[in-house]
Write a structure and sequence with these properties.
Blueprint (H helix, E strand, L loop, with lengths): L6 H4 L1 H5 L2 E6 L3 E6 L8 E5 L11 H22 L3 E5 L9 E7 L21 H14 L1
Antiparallel strand pairs: 1-2, 2-3, 3-5, 4-5
Helix pairs in contact: 3-4
Length: 139
């Protein structure tokens, strides 16, 4: 099931606006968030266009959270954050996904809720590629 207006479903230009695909996981896709005010920020997006956890089987839910944990372990290994925050939103973009937001005690927004898209830190293509390779190697 796909939605033609959804970046997670259609990829290409729609996804490129906010993220870069890293790789496929068991039931989801790992995406590097373009805005990197929180170094290592990623998104784990479920394989199908569903809105809620209750819309998938128990087995797929368990596999989805295993994908989230696998991605979080890689983020911890590569970026050594003090904490990873997890955000599952989707009021307007109803595709099941989780934001993994590394937080650093001496960094941006420590001690507060992360801003969805602060628009402060964007990288070069080479810097994104280097990040992606490090994350892939840590998976």
């Amino acid at each position: 099931m796909k939605d033609s207006n959804c970046g997670y479903c259609m990829r290409g230009e729609l996804l490129d606006k906010f993220g870069i695909m890293i790789c496929e996981l068991s039931v989801s896709t790992l995406i590097l968030f373009r805005e990197q005010s929180h170094p290592g920020r990623c998104i784990v997006a479920y394989k199908d266009h569903v809105s809620e956890l209750v819309d998938i089987s128990d087995a797929d839910r368990d596999a989805f959270f295993a994908d989230v944990a696998r991605a979080a372990k890689a983020i911890h290994k590569v970026f050594s954050p003090d904490k990873v925050n997890y955000g599952a939103y989707g009021d307007t973009g109803c595709h099941l996904h989780v934001h993994l937001v590394p937080k650093y005690k001496d960094g941006f927004e420590w001690g507060g809720v992360f801003e969805m898209n602060p628009g402060k830190t964007f990288l070069t293509d080479a810097e994104y590629a280097e990040m992606i390779e490090k994350i892939k190697a840590a998976l």
